[in-house]
């Protein structure tokens, strides 16, 4: 059976379209999202409404951001959804999520994300972290492992440090390719990201933290000293109490923040 016959829409590869069709998985994700009217509920990439419909059924209003104009047109004409949805056609990467926040109501953001934009999209959403209660995303399983990794493991990297700086990260559910139409080539997983209300390790300049982690993880096989030598000297590493002979994946989030704050103070 072709995708078109099955879905009534031809899945577009360039928009990362793999539609959820497994009702058991859909129910479990909606349970994890736990939709309510006390938050501004926001879905990224509603597609054919696999998650949109059960979430919208549970609440008064749902905001969606969808890039594909054909899918937007379908949602606008949807008999039961059209009155409940606040539809924004456009690129979620460029979308100003702060415009959705209302007095006293933070956002809950969720989506089965197009895998080609998932990392930049999470970085974009971290900029609105203070206005977000939680986020639930379907991602490549490998990305969920990176988000939730511990120091000293292969999966630990720049994405781990930046995600765990902003959020508590909890893997929720693994999802096999057969739960989607068409099936993706990789395993997927759902993750819950809860932005800290009070950051455990506050950073004076997040741009500096981003720059420092990018530089530190540039060459994973090299030592911290080697990767950061133009930013932090041996004496300064000693002052910070950080062993500069370690590899970047052996350094904790707290230590990355301490280094970033040190560089900010020095400037
Ligand atoms: N939520 C649906 C589901 O679970 O079946 C669709 C998921 S599909 C993996 C990703 C959806 O994101 C598609 O509807 C696609 O058109 C949309 N999309 C792709 N790139 C986007 C972007 N940059 N901004 C907003 N939506 C995007």
UniProtKB/TrEMBL annotation:
EC number annotated for this UniProt entry: 2.1.1.182
SUPFAM superfamilies found in the cross-reference section: S-adenosyl-L-methionine-dependent methyltransferases
Primary localization class, coarse: cytoplasm
Record-annotated Ribosomal RNA adenine methylase transferase N-terminal domain positions: 25-197
Coiled-coil stretches: none
Enzyme class: transferase
Binding-site residues for S-adenosyl-L-methionine, renumbered to this chain: 18, 20, 45, 66, 91, 112
Keyword annotations from UniProtKB, A to Z: Cytoplasm, Methyltransferase, RNA-binding, rRNA processing, S-adenosyl-L-methionine, Transferase
Pfam entry (one): RrnaAD
Catalysed conversion reaction: adenosine(1518)/adenosine(1519) in 16S rRNA + 4 S-adenosyl-L-methionine = N(6)-dimethyladenosine(1518)/N(6)-dimethyladenosine(1519) in 16S rRNA + 4 S-adenosyl-L-homocysteine + 4 H(+)
Cellular compartments annotated: Cytoplasm
The keyword S-adenosyl-L-methionine is assigned to this record: yes
InterPro entries: KsgA/Erm, rRNA_Ade_diMease-like_C, rRNA_Ade_Mease_Trfase_CS, rRNA_Ade_methylase_Trfase_N, rRNA_adenine_dimethylase, SAM-dependent_MTases_sf
Protein role: Specifically dimethylates two adjacent adenosines (A1518 and A1519) in the loop of a conserved hairpin near the 3'-end of 16S rRNA in the 30S particle. May play a critical role in biogenesis of 30S subunits.
Stated family: Belongs to the class I-like SAM-binding methyltransferase superfamily. rRNA adenine N(6)-methyltransferase family. RsmA subfamily.
HAMAP family per record: 16SrRNA_methyltr_A
Name this polypeptide is given: Ribosomal RNA small subunit methyltransferase A
Organism the protein comes from: Shewanella nanhaiensis
Lineage: Bacteria, Pseudomonadati, Pseudomonadota, Gammaproteobacteria, Alteromonadales
Gene designation: rsmA
């Amino acid at each position: 059976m072709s995708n078109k016959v099955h879905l009534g829409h031809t899945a577009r590869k360039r928009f990362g379209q793999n539609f959820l069709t497994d009702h058991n998985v859909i129910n479990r994700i909606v349970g994890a999202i736990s939709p309510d009217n006390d938050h501004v509920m926001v879905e990224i990439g509603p597609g054919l409404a696999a998650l949109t419909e059960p979430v919208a059924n549970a609440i008064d209003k749902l905001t969606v951001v969808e890039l594909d104009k054909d899918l937007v047109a379908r949602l606008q004409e949807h008999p039961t959804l059209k009155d409940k949805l606040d539809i924004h056609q456009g690129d979620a990467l460029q979308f100003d999520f702060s415009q959705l926040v209302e007095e006293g109501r933070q956002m809950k953001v969720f989506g089965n994300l197009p895998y080609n934009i998932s990392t930049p999209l999470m970085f974009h959403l971290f900029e609105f972290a203070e206005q977000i209660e939680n986020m639930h995303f379907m991602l490549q399983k490998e990305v969920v492992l990176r988000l939730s990794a511990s120091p000293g493991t292969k999966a630990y990297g720049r994405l781990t440090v930046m995600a765990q700086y902003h959020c508590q990260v909890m893997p929720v559910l693994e999802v096999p390719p057969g739960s989607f139409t068409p099936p993706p080539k990789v395993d997927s997983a759902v993750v819950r990201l809860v932005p800290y209300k009070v950051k455990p390790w506050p950073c004076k300049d997040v741009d500096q933290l981003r720059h420092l982690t990018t530089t530190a993880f540039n060459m994973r096989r090299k030592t911290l000293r080697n990767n950061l030598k133009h930013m932090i000297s041996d004496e300064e590493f000693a002052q910070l109490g950080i062993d500069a002979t370690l590899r970047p994946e052996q350094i904790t989030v707290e230590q990355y923040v301490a280094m970033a704050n040190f560089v900010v103070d020095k400037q």
